[in-house]
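User: Show me a protein chain along with its predicted structure.
Assistant: Here is one chain, sequence first, then C-alpha cells.
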Amino acid sequence: MVSEAESTRAILDDAWGHIPQSRETTAGLGSFTRLRIERIISLVVGLGSLVLGTQAFLTALLPYQESPAWHVPLMLMTFVPLTAMLIACGLGRAVRLCAGIFAVAYPLALLLWPAATAGGTADSTAEPWIWYLVNVATVASVLAFPLFLQVVWTAFVPILFGVVRLIQGEFTPEYWYNVTLDVSFALILGGMLVTLGWVFRAIAANVDEARARAVESYAAAAAADAAEQERIAVAALMHDSVLAALIAAERAHTPRERTLAVTMAREALTRLANTEQDSEEGSDEPRDAASLADDIERSAAELGVDIGVQRSIVPRTPPMPGRIARALVLAATQAIANAAQHAGGSGLAVIVDGSADPARVRITVRDTGAGFDLDRVPHDRLGIRASIFARVAAVGGTSSIDSDPHGTTVRLEWREGTP
C-alpha cells in the first residue's frame, strides 16, 4: 500500500511537471528575442524570394536559352524546392530544411546549365531566368546553414554562375564584361544579406543573454529575500513563542500555571512545525465549499471584477483542509484575472459545485472571449502553468482548460481522500 509520504511526493512531482523544465523549454526561456528575430528573417526572406522567384518564373516562360529537353526538368529542379521554401517561410515550420534543400538544388541546376545550353545561340546581354535566383540561393543559406557555410555559399554560388555563363558563351570577350558585372552585383548583395542576418542574430543573442542574466539575478535576489524573511520569522517565533513558553514552564508552580505552560509550549511547537508552509496559506482548519465561493468573490472584487459565484452545493459535501481551499481559491482567482485581462471579462461566470457521491468540489471559470492556444503560450508566461496547473496539482487536485474561438473554460477539482 502506498504510504502518505510517497503519495505526497507523487503529487508534488506531478505539480512540478506542469511547469516547463525540459532542455528545450530552458532554451526557449533564454531565446525569447532570437526566436522572434528568426521569424522576422524568415518572413522577409520569403517575401523577397517570392518577388525574385516570380520574376524568374515569368522570364522562364519567354523564349529561353536552354534546349527544350532540358527546360522543364531544370524548372522543376529549381522552382519546386523554391516553392517549398516559400511555404515554409510563410508558415514558420521546417524553414531550415526547405531552405537547405533549395540552397543545394540551385547550384546543381547551375552545374547542368552548360549541358542544357550546349549548341544554342546565347545573347550575352540577355540574362537567363536562372540568374534571378542567384541571391535567393545565397539568402537561403542564411536560413539553413551556420555562419561559415553562409559565407562560403555567398561566394560560391555567384562565382559558379559566372563560370557556367562563361562556359555557355565559350569564354568570348563580350561575355566577360557582363558576367563580371553580374557576379560582382551578386557578391555585394549576398554579402550584405549575410552581414545583416549575422548582425540581427548577434543583437538578439545579446538581448537574450542580458535578459537571462537579469532574470537569474532577480531570482537570486528573491531567494535571498525569502531566506532572510524566513530567518526573521523563525527568529521572531523563537523569541516570542518558544522563549515565552520556556519562561512560563520555568516559573510554573501551580497546576494551573503548568497547564498554561504546556498549552503555550504546544502552540509554540505547532507554529514552529508550520514555519515551512506558505505564509499566505493561513489556517489549515477544514473549510466548506460555501466559504470557498465567498473567498472567490472577495478575491475577484480585489481585482476589480464584480461577480456573483453560482453555487450548486449539496448539504453533505465534505469539507476540505484550509491549504487546499486556499490553493483552489488562488487558482480560480488567476483564471478570473486571465479572463478579465485577455477576454475583457466577456461572459465571465464562476460556478462552485459540491457533491457527496462522489465526494468532491469543482470550480468552473468560464468566459466567452476569443480563446487561445495553450501550446502557443510562451514558456516564460507561467500564469497558467504555475499559478493554475501546478498549484492545484500540488494539493492533489486536478485542473483542465478548454479553449476555442467561442470561449475558455477552466475546471478545478478536488476529491476527498487526496492530501
